Amino acid sequence: MRVAVYHRPADFENCCFADVNAVVIDVLRASTTIIAALENGCRQILAVETVEQAFSLAKQFPRDQTLLAGERGGRRVDGFDLGNSPYEFVREQVAGKTIVLTTTNGTRAIARAESAASTRILALTNLNAVTAALLEENKPVAVLCAGREGDFSQEDSVCAGLLVEKLLAARSDIQAGDGVEKARRLAEKHKNNLVGMLQSTPHGRYLTSIGFGLDLEYCARLNGSSLVPITQIGSIVATATTA
């Protein structure tokens, strides 16, 4: 198994990931929110890049069974039912529903992974579960950090580093590719204070400034979920592990 980490969207913009398992990370907050929505019983999540695509796609489903969700600039898009805070995706809101989701960074990264053999969604909240799923399949892994507005985001790279650490600890034959050592260094530096790390990042500080400071504590809940969101025929659904 070979593992590579792509720390910025520009690093994987034109990559083809055929025969590779892609892992998309957007800790703040799309990955964490996707996991929360699936934990609370949503039927599926349809991730799209633009607000226009979201409105158009939602019209193809019964309105009473569909939710529009997402953000621009961290805030809920006008006309949407939900924003991008994991606290919004409670069972009473999302159970049984199709969610059409668009975010500034995360859903764009998911779209860039469409050529992969499979695409899984990773956050701090399901780290063990995704690790177990990747080890079971034993295919090359490309870890794609969604970043922030096209640039590097520390929180995504730290999460990537924690994943890499677990994979390397479990298998002695894993080949470390591009970006792995940087991710490992960041994980080693910050793994004992994940909340503080999130609070110190530019995006963490921005979310706090617009009233989403509690989201950072939620996003730092290490291994609170056993779900592994995976893309299947264009939609994101949940699989479970015993990790």
**The CATH fourth-level homologous superfamily:** ComB-like
**Helix-strand pattern, N to C?**
EHEHEHEEHEHEHEHEHHHHEE
What Rg is obtained from the alpha carbons, in whole angstroms? 16 Å
Low-confidence segments, ≥5 residues, pLDDT <50? Answer: none
Distance between the termini: 20 Å
Class by SSE composition: alpha/beta
Query: What does the overall shape look like?
Result: globular
Number of domains: 1
- What's the CATH topology name? putative 2-phosphosulfolactate phosphatase
User: How much strand content do the residues show?
Assistant: 15-25%
The overall pLDDT, averaged over residues, is 96
In short:
The chain has helices spanning 9-12, 30-39, 51-58, 91-94, 106-112, 127-137, 154-170, 180-190, 194-200, 202-209, 213-219; strands spanning 2-6, 21-25, 44-47, 66-72, 75-76, 98-102, 118-122, 141-145, 175-176, 227-232, 235-240. It is α/β, with parallel strands linked by helices.
